[in-house]
Amino acid sequence: MEAQRGFSEEQFQAAGRELSQPAPAAGGAWQLLVETMGISIHRLYHEQSGLYEYKIFGGLADCPPELLADVYMDLDYRKQWDQYVKELSEKIYDGKRIIYWEVKYPFPLSNRDYVYLRERRDMEVDGQKIWVMLAKSVSLPQCPEKSGIIRVNSYVQSLVLASDGKTGSKVYMYYFDNPGGMIPSWLINWAAKSGVPAFLKDLQKACLNYCKKT
Hints:
Blueprint: H1 9-18, E1 31-36, E2 39-46, E3 51-60, H2 65-73, H3 75-81, E4 85-93, E5 96-103, E6 112-125, E7 128-137, E8 150-151, E9 155-163, E10 169-177, H4 185-213
Parallel strand pairs: 6-8
Antiparallel strand pairs: 1-2, 2-3, 3-10, 4-5, 5-6, 6-7, 7-9, 9-10
Helix pairs in contact: 2-4
């Protein structure tokens, strides 16, 4: 079954190498969309869907990478700090941890939901300790689509973290999803330009509060 196909060693290594790569050069296939709050967001047109893939480079001060990885993986805690979470849970299917995630969309749009596989690896690349988290949508008969909610069947995300040499983290993220339905272009642009940096800043704030919680 699809859920049994996790991520290969090469996929983790390839994601890890992206962190040390320079951001895409101007004039190439990847376009710089926005630079804000120490984060640069680049996008690549995805011919098949008419949507964009995104690469995000930047840093989060005062959040060590191991702590950041722990917070990112903690689903119960995310329900406290991520205002867009409607439902978030994890179950075991075929020996794999599968996540169900419903995201609140603004009225009058329907909420979206995701069923995805996620794995974390703490590893070394070129002598540097890094934390790599990979996620991708899966299709499972145990998680059928729900009435009134649009299922996102194309979702891929990578998050790679390393120390910035001080008390914070270097961050690389790759992101693609096809939200389906009729999403106005202004909302997609807002999500990319504002939503992603806001999510990373919320993640940073959640890290600082996590220390107090634990």
